[in-house]
Write a structure and sequence with these properties.
9 strands; about 45% helix; nine-stranded mixed β-sheet; 8 helices; Rossmann fold; about 280 residues; alpha/beta
Length: about 280
């Protein structure tokens, strides 16, 4: 049986660096996926020139048909999936002039809703001992939500994905109604989208803990402030440094005791999602 790993949004930045790391450390085939076929193939060719051997498959995480095509391909060729790194995301620049309601809708659609859709479609392929890594952010910490009431809802140990979906939609609706501040959401669509991704991770691990498939682990990760297009190349870390913690989580050994369903910092340490404090 050939093992297989998939990285979403892999043609540049942290995603590209994760593909590169997995190519050197993962015992199996690594798929770099990207929305744009030309950019994806160019990224693969670039890695091949460096001596790595990733494969390419088109994936637009906002297109259900595209996700389904990837699922069917993986099912037919491999019969399953061993590593999924949910890296694809967007962020508006600080000086973006797009209306906030538009930023809110698009950011949640890509960073949260599309990621949920990828998981819903690909999770049935996960084999025992599979690893899932959801790229969150320091912006995805619970402290980024001003409202105490909203924090409690996000942190609830019984929160379901459908309830989380409703929370994320409430933020979008609040942005459209221009009462997002009044309702305690704050003014950053990116923050809310990544808080959603972190909360999603905790729910997914609770589901995996009840799954008949053995030892499936999902974690959220803050890769660090990395020099990428998304940060306008202001981050002090290289993409390779940003890839270290996500790759570590993607390669957790079979029956690892942890991290498991947790938020992991760029230094590979577990942090308390609510308090943003590292656990010893």
């Amino acid at each position: 049986m050939t093992r297989v790993a998939v990285v979403t949004g892999g043609n540049k930045g942290i995603g590209f660096a994760i593909v590169k790391e997995l190519c050197s450390k993962f015992d199996g085939n690594v798929y770099l996926t990207a929305r744009n076929v030309d950019l994806g193939n160019a990224a693969v060719e670039g890695l091949k020139k460096e001596g790595f051997h990733p494969r390419f498959h088109q994936l637009d995480i906002t297109d259900t048909n595209s996700i389904t095509r990837l699922r069917d391909y993986l099912q037919e060729k491999y019969g399953g999936l061993d590593v999924l790194v949910n890296n694809a995301a967007i962020a508006y620049k600080n000086d973006a002039t797009d209306p906030f309601e538009e930023q809110a809708e698009n950011t949640v659609k890509v960073n949260y809703t599309a990621t949920v859709n990828v998981c819903n479609i690909l999770f049935p392929l996960l084999r025992p001992h599979a690893r899932v890594v959801n790229l969150s952010s320091s912006c995805g910490m619970l402290s980024k939500i001003p409202s105490q009431d909203l924090k409690q809802k996000f942190a609830s140990p019984t929160l379901t994905i459908s309830e989380l979906n409703a929370l994320m939609q409430d933020f979008v609706n609040s942005a459209k109604a221009k009462n997002n501040m009044e309702k305690g959401w704050g003014t950053s669509a990116y923050n809310v989208s990544k808080v959603g991704v972190t909360a999603l991770t905790l729910i997914q691990q609770r589901q995996f803990d009840k799954d008949p498939r053995e030892d499936i682990i999902v974690n959220a990760v803050h890769p660090g402030y990395v020099d990428t297009d998304m940060t306008s190349h202001k981050g002090p870390l290289t993409p390779e440094q940003g890839a270290e913690a996500p790759t570590y989580l993607a390669l957790l050994l079979p029956n690892a005791t942890g991290p498991k369903g947790q938020m992991v910092w760029t230094d590979k340490k577990v942090v308390d999602w609510g308090l943003n404090e590292k656990k010893s």
